[in-house]
């Protein structure tokens, strides 16, 4: 307990550890991209990172600001057209893990990146679906990472952009050729996994120093906690060092210098 | 056969008021110079198609060129919202803009189907998503062989597509390198096409690094080619110049404010002969 780290670093390191070496991962921009690249630079050197811009097996030295930064194409094994990316590689079943972020998530892991409020009279217009709707259903499984807050963890999402398990938890039942869906949600406070039967999210692990009350306070529904609640392992010195280097390099590269 | 025109003349000839226009380039090679020319020429009532509207459509929307936008991810990549798109959708400024939104997979398939001359694209998509409830152009069909329920969307068939590329040769053949997005599909799907390029070379096949699987759009499949140096800034051109990430961040403040936006367009587009940024 001697290391000094932030809750954001705890989240990224935990998300990175979820990716096994050798996995083929379709990476969302932002937090998932940070975690996936940390995994590649630490325990998972052979993880295959794929971005929807068509960049296959890419090894960016700095984190991309956009999903199509030049860095991704320059360090990729090959770059394919976007229709090929979605049709052959994603829909064709070549992706083990889809790694996504979101603006809103509910207890059944449905994701909203479309809008807050009513569709025709939005309070806040968000960017929209992008690759997520098909990543979530065509990848073998889905990891989700986002910061924990009541605004994000809502009782019911305003709009299901991307399927978790549907508004009743049964959205994948009987659907042929569909992935397992979300298997874990990693936040800055905890790790959650869907209940194998009901698909409702259950808190399985609390990050060091975080209480169950804190997690409940940051969640918009009455949470379920696993009977044996684990404590998420702390980041190692090496992980923190590599993550901080990566972020410093990235900040320098994006400052326009 | 592609005709070499000035950017002004290409836009004047092929982009008509009320047209359906696709300006493609997936984060890379976004045809900003052409977009600015469309703004300068005051084109109106356009239906604008782009997977990622990006700053280029934010500018066209804010300048009042768009009647409708068809897209699949409408943000400022890595930064946040497209404030002009939001202002048009939420407040109707400078005019109400209708939106039709898809997922990336569906739009990519729709461009490909357009290039293939098909009326529709079929994909394993939109399962459990509520997008079909707000977009009547998303339907579901049963596979006649397996019975599997699949999504169907109409193909994209623009009146004119505009893309930017690295180089063209004297015969009008165009080379696209790096992230190729749906540029080739957009050109082949459209009735007319304009390709802006960084430079013209004699013969692409004689260029260093040319290889038999390069992404080439033959000159006879293109309507017009116009030279627009740095024509995709603030996005980038692989091998020529990097993405101006700092400007993407600056745009957030410019686009948040109607007056700041209008002043920016006036100074950098209306009063600039060629390329802004």
TrEMBL record, chain A:
GO terms for molecular function: CoA-transferase activity. Gene3D superfamilies: Glutaconate Coenzyme A-transferase. It comes from the Bacteria. Keywords: Transferase. SUPFAM superfamilies: NagB/RpiA/CoA transferase-like. The keyword Membrane does not apply. Pfam families: CoA_trans. PANTHER family: ACETATE COA-TRANSFERASE YDIF, CHOLESTEROL RING-CLEAVING HYDROLASE IPDB SUBUNIT. This is 3-oxoadipate--succinyl-CoA transferase subunit B. It comes from Bisbaumannia pacifica.
UniProtKB/TrEMBL annotation, chain B:
GO terms for molecular function: CoA-transferase activity. Pfam families: CoA_trans (PF01144). Keywords: Transferase. This is CoA transferase subunit A. It comes from Bisbaumannia pacifica.
């Amino acid at each position: 307990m001697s290391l000094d780290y932030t809750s954001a670093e705890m989240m990224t390191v935990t998300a990175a550890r979820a990716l096994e070496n050798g996995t083929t991962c379709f990476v969302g921009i932002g937090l998932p991209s940070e975690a996936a690249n940390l995994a590649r630079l630490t325990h998972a050197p052979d993880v295959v990172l794929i971005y929807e811009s068509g960049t296959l097996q890419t090894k960016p030295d700095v984190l991309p600001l956009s999903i199509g930064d030049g860095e991704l194409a320059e360090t990729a094994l090959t770059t394919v057209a976007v229709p090929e990316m979605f049709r052959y590689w994603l829909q064709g079943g070549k992706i083990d893990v889809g790694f996504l972020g979101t603006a809103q998530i509910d207890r059944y892991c449905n994701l909203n990146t479309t809008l807050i409020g009513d569709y025709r009279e939005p309070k806040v217009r968000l960017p929209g679906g992008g690759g997520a709707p098909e990543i979530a259903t065509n990848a073998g499984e889905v990891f989700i990472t986002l910061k924990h807050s009541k605004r994000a963890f809502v009782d019911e999402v305003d709009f299901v952009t991307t399927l978790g398990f549907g508004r009743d938890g049964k959205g994948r039942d009987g659907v042929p050729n569909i992935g397992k869906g979300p298997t874990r949600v990693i936040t800055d406070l905890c790790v959650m996994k869907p209940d194998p039967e009901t698909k409702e999210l259950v808190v399985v692990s609390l990050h060091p120093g975080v209480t169950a009350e804190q997690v409940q306070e940051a969640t918009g529904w009455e949470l379920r906690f696993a009977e044996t609640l684990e404590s998420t392992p702390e980041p190692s010195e090496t992980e923190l060092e590599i993550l901080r280097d990566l972020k410093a390099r990235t900040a320098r590269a994006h400052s326009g210098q | 056969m592609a005709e070499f025109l000035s950017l002004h003349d290409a836009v004047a000839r092929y982009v008509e008021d009320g047209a359906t226009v696709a300006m493609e380039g997936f984060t890379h090679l976004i045809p900003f110079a052409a977009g600015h020319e469309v703004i300068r020429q005051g084109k109106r009532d356009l239906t604008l198609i782009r997977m990622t509207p990006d700053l280029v459509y934010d500018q066209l929307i804010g300048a009042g060129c768009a009647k409708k936008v068809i897209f699949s991810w409408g943000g400022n990549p890595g930064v946040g919202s497209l404030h002009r798109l939001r202002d048009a959708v939420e407040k109707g400024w400078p005019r109400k803009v209708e939106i039709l939104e898809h997922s990336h997979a569906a739009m990519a398939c729709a461009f490909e189907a357009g290039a293939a001359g098909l009326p529709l694209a079929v994909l394993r998509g939109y399962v459990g998503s509520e997008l079909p409830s707000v977009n009547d152009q998303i339907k579901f069909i049963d596979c006649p062989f397996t019975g599997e329920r699949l999504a169907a969307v109409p193909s994209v068939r623009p009146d004119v597509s505009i893309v930017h590329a690295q180089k063209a040769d004297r015969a009008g053949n165009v080379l696209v390198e790096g992230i190729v997005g749906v540029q080739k599909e957009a050109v082949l799907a459209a009735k007319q096409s304009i390709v802006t390029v960084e430079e013209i070379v004699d013969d692409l096949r004689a260029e260093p690094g040319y290889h038999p699987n390069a992404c080439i759009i033959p000159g006879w499949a293109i309507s017009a080619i116009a030279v627009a140096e740095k024509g995709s800034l603030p996005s980038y051109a692989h091998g020529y110049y990097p993405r101006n990430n700092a400007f993407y961040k600056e745009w957030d403040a410019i686009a948040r404010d109607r007056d700041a936006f209008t002043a920016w367009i006036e100074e950098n587009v209306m009063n600039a002969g060629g390329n802004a940024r």
